Amino acid sequence: MNWSRIGPPIDVRPLFAVERAELLAVLGTLDEEQWLAPTVCPGWSVHDLVAHVVHDYMRRLSGGRDGWSAGWIPVPDGDIAPVLNRANDEFAAALRGISPRVLIGLVAGLGPQLDDYWATRDLDAPGISVSWAAPDVPAPAWLDIAREYTEFWVHQQQIRDAVGRPGADSRQLTYPVVDAFLRALPRALADADGTSVTVAVSAPVDDAWTARRGPDGWTLARGECDAPDARVKVGPRTLWRVATRGIEPDEALENAKLEGDHELARAALTLVSIVR
């Protein structure tokens, strides 16, 4: 896999502590009712989502830093979603008897350990597969780590939405999420007709990404394209929600401005940047 086809590497490692500080700040203000509030994740409360973040910290430290593989069943990318979903549900359910104070302590204690582990990684070395960018092949560590950052940031937004607390959506924190999610664009366009499509993302991101079709398929680069076949202007909130299937492409289209080939523009908004 020529990973340069989906754009240049990014290094999100300095942002984990910033994102986590925002999460801890909001969690420390929630009452019991808010901890039990439902979220956009079916069947999961705010408490469950925080437990899921803790689970992610534990999995990456155990498997990556510590090399612990006992109890893990290897599965092909195409079958990984149901296995992950079941493991996530079981962990969230197991932690429902754990108090918010303990959960906050786990986030605060495990997060810096994970930061230290990320700091040891060679960003060009093979990491875990990022199936929504290229299935069945190890992704470079920079993309694997960026995927983890997007997950933590999105879960924080889902928590904030559930309790009516906007925030953690500065350009510093949001831009890398959009940049990482758009690495799924070439795959989303694989069967689409056309030669170029630009996705322009409004404030606070204020940047654009262009996919172009060449002899070997679609490639992605930052920046506008002169006279693309299609251009989509969309807000970052709409983009991350459609990429994580918090909304469907038709709803995203209603909140986007399209120019040129509407079918190609619609294909761009079918991108999925999560395991499904």
UniProtKB/TrEMBL annotation:
Pfam families: MDMPI_N (PF11716). Residues 18-159 form the Mycothiol-dependent maleylpyruvate isomerase metal-binding domain. InterPro entries: DinB/YfiT-like, Maleyloyr_isom, MDMPI_metal-binding. It comes from Cryptosporangium aurantiacum. This is TIGR03083 family protein. Gene3D superfamilies: dinb family like domain. One of its GO terms (molecular function) is metal ion binding.
